[in-house]
Amino acid sequence: MKNLGMKNSPILVIGKNGKTGSRVNQRLQALGYATRAVSRSTTPSFDWEDPATWASAIKGTRSAYVTYQPDLAVANAEAAIKAFVRVARENGLEHIVLLSGRGEEGAQRAEKILQASGISWNIVRCSWFCQNLSESFMLEGILAGELVLPAADTVEPFVDADDIAEVVVAALTELGHRNRLYELTGPRALTFAQCINEISDALGRPVKFTPVPIDDYINVIREQGVPEDVQWLLRELFTVVFDGRNSQVMPGVEEALGRPPTDFKTYVQKTMDSGVWNTVVQKQSA
Ligand SMILES: NC(=O)c1ccc[n+]([C@@H]2O[C@H](COP(=O)([O-])OP(=O)(O)OC[C@H]3O[C@@H](n4cnc5c(N)ncnc54)[C@H](OP(=O)(O)O)[C@@H]3O)[C@@H](O)[C@H]2O)c1
Predict the structure, then answer these.
(1) Pocket, ligand 1, Cβ cutoff 6 A
(2) I want to staple 132 with a disulfide (CB 3.0 to 4.6 A). Which of 28, 136, 165, 190 is the partner?
(3) Which residue's CA is minimally distant from atom 22 of ligand 1?
(4) Strands 208-211 and 35-38
(5) Dist CA 75 CA 106 (whole Å)
(6) 3-state SS class at 14
(7) Mutate to test the pocket of ligand 1, among 69, 132, 236 (most ligand atoms within 8 A of CB)
(8) Does the bond joining 187 to the residue before it have cis omega, within 30 degrees of 0?
């Protein structure tokens, strides 16, 4: 596909240290694109909770990868995306690639706002990331040998964040993707129990999956001091988004990149190679 060749003005990446933002930023830089990767901890900073930070992060950029925090499912997201798109237009942003989630009403409302904005758009509507098991709250359970979650038999076609990043970079840098929505999943739908079995087999040590009722799970995380909005979000994710509506495998990776999505087995192998599930290394660096 023809390259856009606009290497002068930096590409804005919102979510510098995030699971996909970090990968998008690295790939763009490796291809020779200038980037401006931002989050609350960068200079300039970008905070979804503080609209005063948005314009200075956007100024001078022409295209952006946008990851919203904490999740497009939360009540504030619609107003925030509406306001962000207005600030983006006022500050000359011409193309936005938005990270979205499957089966979330709030996410679909945000997608529509972008699609109607007059700015060129792409939407990468993603299933659960494989990397939730290695770069997020589920890592702790795997290291401890037991992952406890309020999810029983639902299957989910977990997608590899490396695939998401490759699609995002293609959308940002190659002609021919404009104004397309890619629904990205992995090639196999798995239960959490199956994921954990595959990880356990590969690690050669027991890791068990324990499903619990959602109310029990929320009670435990409340006692651990997890904030109320995060409790709400986890309840929403495990009861609504994870009710089976998103079980279908979708062809977005193949459509965007002309190759099949990465299998969960490959994700497990490269994560093993990274050492992140190695309990000895984790203890030494703690
Ligand atoms: N994880 C999934 O399975 C999944 C699936 C589909 C869609 N999504 C979508 O992906 C997005 C990212 O979710 P994620 O959990 O995977 O997070 P993530 O991309 O790993 O991002 C975490 C980063 O966000 C930054 N951040 C936190 N609050 C912020 C704020 N108020 N303003 C700006 N930056 C902030 C933090 O950096 P600083 O501390 O430096 O600010 C943190 O390093 C969400 O919109 C979610 O809906 C996720």
Answers:
(1) 15, 17-21, 39-41, 46-49, 67-69, 71-72, 99, 101, 126, 128-129, 132
(2) 136
(3) 18
(4) unpaired
(5) 7
(6) strand
(7) 69
(8) no
In tens, the pLDDT along 139-182 reads: 999 999 999 999 888 899 999 999 999 999 999 999 899 999 99
Per-residue CA distances from 94 to 35, 109, 116 (Å): 15, 21, 13
Q: Is 197 exposed, middle or buried (0-12, 13-18, 19+ CB in 10 A)?
A: middle
Q: What's the CA-to-centroid distance between 127 and ligand 1, angstroms? A: 15
Span from the CA of 75 to the centroid of ligand 1 (angstroms):
16
Asked whether the beta carbons of 28 and 172 are under 8 A apart, the reply is yes
Alpha carbons 176 and 194: distance in angstroms, whole number: 37
3-state DSSP assignment of residue 222:
helix
Q: Is the dihedral of CA 171, 177, 182, 184 positive or negative?
A: negative
When the pLDDT of each residue in the chain is averaged and rounded to a whole number, the result is 94
